Amino acid sequence: MRHPQTKKIVIRTAAYGVAFGCILATAAPAADSDIQQTLKASTPNNPNVVRLPKCKKKGMRVVVDLSTGTTNGVSNPNGTLDPKWQLNSAPPGTGFTTPVPVYSIPPCCGAWAPPVAPATWVSPWQNGSFPSTAVSGIYRYEVTFSLPAGYTSIQVQGVCRADDEGRIALDGTPMSMPYCHFPASAQIGTFNFNVTSPPQGLHYLRARVQNGPGGTHTTGDPTGLMVQATLTAQCR
User: Fold this and answer.
1) Residue 234 CB: number of other CB atoms within 10 A?
2) Which residues of the chain have pLDDT under 50?
3) What is the dihedral of CA 143, 113, 74, 103, to 10 degrees?
4) Is the link from the previous residue into 178 a cis peptide, with omega within 30 of 0?
5) 141 DSSP assignment
6) pLDDT per position as a tens digit, 125-163
7) Domain map of the chain by residue range?
8) How do beta strands 49-51 and 137-147 pair?
């Protein structure tokens, strides 16, 4: 019996020039050129698109790490730019002209729960040097992936935490409760999206993070996001 092979693919972003993806493609043995893809810049709002390989082998299964703060499925050091996720919008007063990159940061202030490996917490303030009174309001994070024709189903599943509260959505379909909260005492948010006959083209995993005023702060508290997520795509 001929056994399937699993291949690890490293893909690169034209926007930042760093490798970031970890793709495992399971199918009959194939040349690397059959499944290796190059990440290319798309639109200004989607500079880092994770491009899945074409379905060239029947039954090929592709697994991609979409976690925050990872490169090739490995946790990034603190202060490292996240090559997949970015911040697409922020409240007025932050000084950001979005989209802006986000960076791996340590759990903040003795209040945030530890991240779920291989993910890290991320924030648009590098090295965790964000103001202790980050502007309150809505912060929208996003990772984009592209499907060529030939995939019969996709699944995106994982867990999340956010400060103060976050909600994950795939192509506009929101997660069910519990949502994403930051303290270890709170139940971790979980999501599991299953799509049959997904359309080819761009798909969006988005996080809507609400940062609200608290304690003695008048403009808001520290804010960040942690998403541990895996995309599984099945070819016909």
Assistant:
1) 18
2) 1-21, 25-45, 215-218
3) 50
4) yes
5) E
6) 886 666 655 788 999 999 999 999 999 999 999 999 999
7) 5-235
8) parallel
